[in-house]
Prior knowledge:
Blueprint: H1 37-49, H2 53-62, E1 67-68, H3 69-76, H4 80-92, E2 96-101, E3 104-109, H5 112-125
Antiparallel strand pairs: 1-3, 2-3
Amino acid sequence: MTQARPRREDSEPPVSDLPVGDLPVADLPVSEPPVSEAAAERLADTMFALSTPSRVQILACLLGGPRSVSDLTEALGMEQSAVSHQLRVLREADLVRAEKYGRKRLYALSDEHVSTLLHAAFHHAGVPHPTPPAAAPPRVLPGEAAGGGP
């Protein structure tokens, strides 16, 4: 059973500000990895999905709500085939999900964890958090009934 670490006093510097020699020694024995190989591989795959600027831009657009491929191509100035390819990578990493809305497929962040992950990454990189425009309501295509969603 691991013991809870004592709470840091406000007067103590954050661990990230301490010189490496002053960092606390981990309690886990070296022979026991803190994460399984399968879990590490899954996490690495997720991080790989975030390793391309265009995928980060797509995710940032989706922070504002669900969007279609055509909405994303217009917002990012990318080719439709490139956006579709990047969305496939993001779907395979469970970062986005797709839902049919009439004849369109709308893409959205898989869950709130993806938003949290993105905001943490922006904070860690020291870049401003994006403020995406609100998603426009899905357009009704000719021949579809208004409000005829999934």
